[in-house]
Amino acid sequence: MDTTDRPHVPSPAARLSGAPAGLALSCHPGPVVAVTGLATALAVSSGSAHGRWVLVGAAVLAGQLSVGWCNDAFDAVRDAGAARPGKPVARGAVGRGTVWGAAFTALFLCAVLSFACGAAAGAAHMTGVVAAWAYNLRLKGTALSWLPYAVGFGSLPCLVALSLPGSPWPAWWAVAAGALLGVAAHLGDVLPDIEEDLRAGVRGLPQRLGPARVRRLLPAPLVAATAVLLLGPSEAPGGRTTAVLSGVALCAVAAATVCAGPRPVGAWRKAALAGTVAAASADVALLLARGTQIA
User: Fold this and answer.
1) What local confidence, expressed as pLDDT, does residue 155 receive?
2) pLDDT for res 67
3) Among 168, 189, 217, which residue terminates a domain?
4) Burial level of 117, CB count in 10 A (0-12/13-18/19+)?
């Protein structure tokens, strides 16, 4: 019998050996590392004691793992239908039930670790994590798709500040900057997949706006975050601060100009991406530099 056209089905042994790797890849390791690193660095820069910033980092890590696993487990059927090769659950590298189990376990650990930082800190962080779960389960396909990102990133300065001795309230500008960076992260994350998402019936805010409008809009929250970080703290910006603000704003405006065309290609696409990444990196650096002032 000719079996050349039969789909390859991994053996039970192969599936078992590949499950740990599939589970690790299905958590969205890039965003997990980036967000955990940002929150941990912010906790360190805020002056947290050694044990406290480790606890903050562990709480954020558990929360991000739960969000990533929830996303892949919930979207497994749609990802399989779209034949997305980068999705381990969709291609059968790890079972959907296994990933759901990991997601809920990480969510439980996140709650324990978050509230170990303090009641207010735990409540603030869990609000952000629950918002991210709401994005995965429902809000991704609505005009409010940006809101969980704003809440989630805005909750990170809250977690850091409220975990400090005395549980001080976070500075408004730190929360606002985090929320704006979250909106930018949402736009940048969704932008490459807008057309594919539309074919799959996903109609979040970026999908409704379309790729061209999202490319033009993306620099706006980055410029706004820069302005908040430089002008929000009580100390008046000096000449160097003004220069940084102007430089970052120019990078973002340049990115918006390059991205304004319907389909930027080649070196122009890379230039637009570089300008946007430069603006985002400068904003993160400014946030970390202001770490001691967030509470």
Assistant:
1) 96
2) 97
3) 168
4) buried
Structure tokens at 205: 């805010």
The verdict on residue 152 lying in a domain is: yes
Which three-class secondary structure state does DSSP give residue 6?
Answer: coil
pLDDT at 7: 40
CATH number of the domain within which 72 lies? 1.10.357.140
In a shared domain, residues 126 and 184: no
For position 178, which CATH number holds? Answer: 1.20.120
Please choose, from the candidates 40, 23, 72, 79, the residue with its C-alpha nearest in 3D space to the C-alpha of residue 196: 79
Q: Provide the residue range defining the domain that includes 180.
A: 171-295
Q: Are residues 79 and 157 in the same domain?
A: yes
Angle at which helix 96-116 crosses helix 50-74, to 10 degrees, equals: 150
User: What are the φ/ψ torsions at residue 251 (nearest 5 degrees)?
Assistant: -60, -45
Phi and psi for 233 in degrees, rounded to 5? -60, 160
What is the pLDDT at residue 14?
A: 39
Number of domains forming the structure of the chain: 2
Among the listed residues 216, 217, 194, the one whose alpha carbon sits nearest the alpha carbon of residue 204: 194
Q: Under a CB-based contact definition with an 8 Å cutoff, are residues 66 and 110 in contact?
A: yes
User: What is the C-alpha separation between 207 and 197, in angstroms, rounded?
Assistant: 7
Cα 37 to Cα 142: distance, rounded to the nearest angstrom: 29
Low-confidence ranges of the chain (pLDDT < 70): 1-18, 50, 81-85, 235-278
